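Good day; I would like, with your permission, to put a structural problem before you. What I wish to show you is a protein chain and, alongside it, a tokenised description of its three-dimensional fold. Thank you for your consideration; the sequence and its tokens are set out here:
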Amino acid sequence: MRTRLHRIIVGASVASALLGTLTMGMADAATPPGGKSSVLHLDLQAGQMPENIVLDRHGSVVVTFAGARQVARITAAGRTEVLATLPAPADATAKTPLLGFPLTTGLARQGHTFYVLYATGTEAETGVWSFTEGREPQKFADLPADGLPNGLVMDPATGTLYVTESAKGAVYTVPTRGPAAGRATLFSDSEALAPAGFFGVNGAKIRNGDLYVSNTDKGTVSRTPLRGPRAGTFTTFADGLTGIDDFEFTGRGDEFLASLVTENTVVLADGTGARRVVLTQADGLSNPTSVAIRGTEVYVPSAAYTTQSDPNLLMAHLTRH
């Protein structure tokens, strides 16, 4: 795998926008020291299209490479190490809904165990897979072959996985322990999750006992309380987020960063309707797909799905004050 770490400086206007947005009335908000960021360039021809991301040890992160069917670690030094490769579909003629090619999408971890979503258009392979380092990935749960499992989050209190399905507009639950472990159950097919022409529910996060999900077509983030085996009503938490893929809360109130995959931007938003563009294509974004935050570091993978140019991992350095 060929990677190249290239340093760039975010333009003064972008740095100013980020500073102005993140400090408005928030004593502990994040701001960029000098507006510096870095971009780790990846290999499009090798399928290194980073779709989802989780934090890892020693300053590294783990991402799914959608086009390579892989899960890979990217170290703080910019080295890429493949941790797992999902098997090619036995039926080579099958087409994955919406996108047409087999791809790894959502990613979650529990200790040394990783859970990854795999969409192929086939019953044999589509679903949740799991692995630990040094061992081959194994199918953990089946999901509908005519859907596109996309976002994945684990409830740390119960060990239950929540899977978003973007083609049909649904959320499934998959317990990781107990007698129902590995069995997918429909949690919700609310209208709030449905596509409005193409892509429906996408990213997922759990916060303060609520499940938050984004809807790409509708440009919304909705939430529902986690109180039982079926979802309650989804209510709109934020809207006006055109082309939202995934998102991450900053740790300050309702503030979150969202990757707008069709707009090539990252925005800072909250539940009041406030939002501001803080990173753009000029900073290196190329269809940004997700966001991860570690202390003063923000990581934004870009999969280059439609740009077909420069898939990468952008790292922005933030400070608290």
About this structure: The two ends are 39 Å apart (CA to CA).
